[in-house]
Structures are given as structure tokens and as C-alpha cells.
């Protein structure tokens, strides 16, 4: 015996919502932090480059050419100011010709892969001095006489520690408020999800309160304040509960009807069988067995009608069909029995008439109407099955000119187990089945007297199901 695998439980709806709402927020925060760091680094680099450019121009102005020589007017106090901060060290170097040390820090390297340096145009590049990253600004100036031109190179370098410090400060100033806002937003998201799931919690509580009730007594779910989706879910559940209650009610009614109606014929069968067992006379035994057979046939007919009634009380799927052709076919099927009992069975009406219906149910409804008319109209009577279109509706009618019914009996014709005749064989369910089939087709069953005498039983299909 194979046992079904247990259902795997996934993440709760609350956790899934938190995951899909907070995870993108975290990703955006990380991406935003990386972009902010890059932007802050760029701005810090621009600030350092601007400061170095100003410094290298100022230092170049302190070197004044005198004839073929140079006068460096760089006070010791200015040099101390430049070099006083070891963490944000600023180094300088003056060389002439370029690369031949004159003044400052002789460790400042020349730029790589720059074959031609334009005079009077600052050049900015990165270098490493004592294994530390530095930003260097370089400016070359021409001096001397036309016959003997010379060039002066001035370099100013600053540690990139200041760039990192500025970047860190900018990132801290930018991301801390964003981090706080993200925390507040996460709390709001969690609270919003919790509040949004409250209708589902109430729905679960209402369903939990109903688990001890019988399905036939379960009341509809009521949600006064809930989102549209939860209302739709509650409506679907109410529809399901209504279907279950109707099914249980039909089942209960079927069992009650079957128990009530089968009790008498079964008791009669038992009684007749017991009497037959005690008979020694063949004629009397045959009479008893004939009654047993008659009771068995009546019980079989009753069971068939009960099952048919129970089957017709469920929802049916309608489809296009030619009801006129169906009615002619049913009339032909009942013609042999009509001829046998001396009843004139005829058909009249449209050649073709399209409706939306269920062929088996409509066939059984017409068969019940014809069977009822043949049984109670009497020998020598006329029974007519007609199909016609009237007031944009389809009318199926079985009329007979038999004895008919009294006016006070007409309202009871479609009631279950109601019979106006004492003739054997019937169980009072045929016309009840016709009424149920009419309801399943969104139609209506009616009965009227047939002047001067007789009965007309009608099956109306509404205009909403008519195709032509």
C-alpha cells in the first residue's frame, strides 16, 4: 500500500512578503552605498586636484629667473606649514632642468609614459612614495634667454589619506540617514504586512470556529472590512459551502425519500413472499408470486425515479442542440407503446429549433411527460407532443384529452410523491423530475387544463438559452 507523501510546507505568506519587499531594499541600499562611495571618491579627488594645482602654481611663482639663474623665494615658515601634518603630508620638489634636484623632496618621481609635457600646463598623476599612495601635480615653466632657453619643473605631492578621509566622512554623512530611513521603512513594511494579513487571520479564525459544526449547519463567512482579494476568497468559500450544503441536503432528502417510499413496498414484498412460502395450492402460489413481481417492478421503478431525481439535482453543462429533432425522436420511441394501449400519439411544431440544453435530461423530461400522459389519459385518447417558439421562448408541451385534473389539484402536480390517481405503477416522481430538469435549464414547468377536458404540461426554456 502506497502512502501519499506528506505535503511540503513552504515559507509563510508573511515571510515571503517580507523577503520580497526587504531584500530588494537591501540590494538597493548596497548598490546605492557603492555608487555613493564612488561619487564621494570622485569629488574628493577633484578637491585634492584643485588644491594641488593651486599649490604648484603658487610654488612656481616663488621661483624667479635672474638672468641665467634662479631665485627661490620660499620662506622656511611656508615650508614648515606644508610639511607639518604627517598624516596629510604635502611634499614638493623643484628641479632644473627637469629631474635635476634643486629644492624640496628629492624622492618625487616623474610621471610615466608622458613623453612630451606642455609648459605652463599642470599635469596630475598618481605615484607611490615610501610605499604610500600620493597624488602629484607637476608644472614646467620655461625661463632664460632666447639663445639659451631652460626649463624649470615644480612638483607638489599630497598623500591620498586625505582623500580616503574625505570619502569616509561623505559616506558617513550620506549613508547614516539612509540607514536610519531604511530601518524605519523596514518597520513600516513589517507593520503594513501584519495589518494587511489581519483579514486572512480573521478568515482563518472564522473557519476554525466552524470545524466543530456540521457541514449542513455551517453559516456563511462574513468579513466587514477586508481587501477586495480577501472578499473574493471569502465569496469563493461561501459558494463552496453553499454547494456542499446543497449537496448534503440533496443527499439527506434522497435518503429520507428512499427510506420513506421503499419501506411500504419492501414490507409488502416480504409479506407476500412469506404467504407464498406457506401456499400449497399452485394457483394461489402463482397469484402470490404475481403480486411479488408487481411489487418488485414498482420498487425498481421507484428506485430508478429516485436516482434520476437525485442525479438531476446537480449542476448540468448546457450545449447547443436541436430540441425539435430531439422531441420527434422521443415521440417515435414511445409510438409502439401508444399503439399497444390504443392511444393516438402525435407530434407537431417547428422542424428545427436550437436551444442550449442537456440532451439526456431533456430526453428524460419529455419521456416522463409522454409516459404520464399515456398512463393516465386512457385508451382511445389523443396525446400530442409539440415544440414551438413563443415570445422568444421555447415551449415543449405534452397535451392529452383524457380526464384531466381538478383545479384544486393542479398546484400539487409537481410535488414529490403526490398522486391524484390510484392506478398502480406510479410513484409521484415523474413530474417532479420534469420540474427539476426545467430548473437546471433556467426554465419553468407549468400545468394547465386542456379544454374541454384533459391536461397540458409545459416545459418553458427562457430566452437567455435560445440561440435562434
From TrEMBL:
Keywords: Kinase, Membrane, Phosphoprotein, Transferase, Transmembrane, Transmembrane helix, Two-component regulatory system. It catalyses: ATP + protein L-histidine = ADP + protein N-phospho-L-histidine. Residues 194-249 form the HAMP domain. It comes from Rhodoferax lithotrophicus. PROSITE patterns: HAMP, HIS_KIN. It is found in: Membrane. Residues 257-465 form the Histidine kinase domain. This is histidine kinase. Its EC number is 2.7.13.3. It is an enzyme of class 2 (transferase).
Amino acid at each position: 500500500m502506497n502512502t501519499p507523501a506528506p505535503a511540503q510546507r513552504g515559507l509563510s505568506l508573511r515571510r515571503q512578503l517580507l523577503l520580497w519587499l526587504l531584500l530588494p531594499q537591501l540590494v538597493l541600499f548596497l548598490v546605492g552605498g557603492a555608487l555613493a562611495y564612488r561619487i564621494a571618491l570622485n569629488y574628493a579627488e577633484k578637491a585634492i586636484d584643485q588644491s594641488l594645482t593651486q599649490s604648484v602654481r603658487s610654488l612656481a611663482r616663488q621661483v624667479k629667473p635672474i638672468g641665467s639663474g634662479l631665485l627661490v623665494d620660499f620662506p622656511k615658515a611656508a615650508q614648515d606649514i606644508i610639511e607639518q601634518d604627517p598624516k596629510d603630508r604635502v611634499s614638493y620638489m623643484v628641479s632644473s632642468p627637469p629631474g635635476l634636484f634643486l629644492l624640496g623632496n628629492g624622492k618625487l618621481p616623474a610621471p610615466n609614459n608622458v613623453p612630451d609635457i606642455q609648459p605652463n600646463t599642470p599635469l596630475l598623476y598618481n605615484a607611490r612614495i615610501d610605499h604610500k599612495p600620493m597624488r602629484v601635480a607637476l608644472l614646467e615653466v620655461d625661463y632664460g634667454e632666447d639663445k639659451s632657453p631652460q626649463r624649470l619643473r615644480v612638483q607638489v605631492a599630497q598623500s591620498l589619506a586625505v582623500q580616503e578621509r574625505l570619502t569616509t566622512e561623505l559616506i558617513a554623512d550620506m549613508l547614516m540617514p539612509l540607514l536610519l530611513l531604511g530601518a524605519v521603512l523596514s518597520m513600516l513594511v513589517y507593520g503594513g504586512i501584519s495589518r494587511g494579513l489581519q483579514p486572512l487571520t480573521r478568515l482563518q479564525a472564522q473557519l476554525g470556529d466552524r470545524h466543530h459544526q456540521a457541514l449542513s449547519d455551517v453559516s456563511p463567512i462574513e468579513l466587514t472590512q477586508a481587501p477586495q482579494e480577501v472578499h473574493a476568497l471569502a465569496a469563493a468559500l461561501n459558494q463552496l459551502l453553499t454547494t456542499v450544503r446543497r449537496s448534503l441536503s440533496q443527499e439527506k432528502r434522497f435518503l429520507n425519500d428512499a427510506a420513506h417510499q421503499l419501506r411500504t413496498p419492501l414490507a409488502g414484498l416480504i409479506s407476500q413472499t412469506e404467504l407464498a412460502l406457506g401456499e400449497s395450492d399452485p394457483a394461489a402460489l402463482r397469484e402470490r408470486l404475481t403480486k411479488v413481481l408487481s411489487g418488485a417492478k414498482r420498487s425498481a421503478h421507484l428506485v430508478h425515479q429516485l436516482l434520476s431525481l437525485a442525479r438531476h439535482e446537480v449542476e448540468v453543462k448546457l450545449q447547443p442542440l436541436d430540441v425539435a429533432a430531439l422531441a420527434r425522436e422521443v415521440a417515435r420511441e414511445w409510438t409502439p407503446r401508444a399503439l399497444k394501449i390504443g392511444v393516438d400519439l402525435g407530434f407537431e411544431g417547428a422542424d428545427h429549433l436550437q436551444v442550449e440544453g442537456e440532451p439526456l435530461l431533456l430526453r428524460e423530461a419529455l419521456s416522463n411527460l409522454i409516459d404520464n400522459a399515456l398512463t393516465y389519459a386512457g385508451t382511445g385518447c389523443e396525446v400530442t407532443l409539440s415544440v414551438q417558439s413563443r415570445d422568444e421562448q421555447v415551449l415543449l408541451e405534452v397535451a392529452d384529452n383524457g380526464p384531466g385534473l381538478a383545479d384544486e389539484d393542479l398546484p400539487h402536480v409537481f410535488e414529490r410523491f403526490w398522486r391524484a390517481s390510484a392506478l398502480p405503477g406510479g410513484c409521484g416522481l415523474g413530474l417532479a423530475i420534469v420540474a427539476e430538469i426545467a430548473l437546471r435549464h433556467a426554465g419553468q414547468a407549468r400545468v394547465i387544463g386542456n379544454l374541454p377536458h384533459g391536461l397540458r404540461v409545459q416545459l418553458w426554456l427562457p430566452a437567455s438559452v435560445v440561440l435562434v
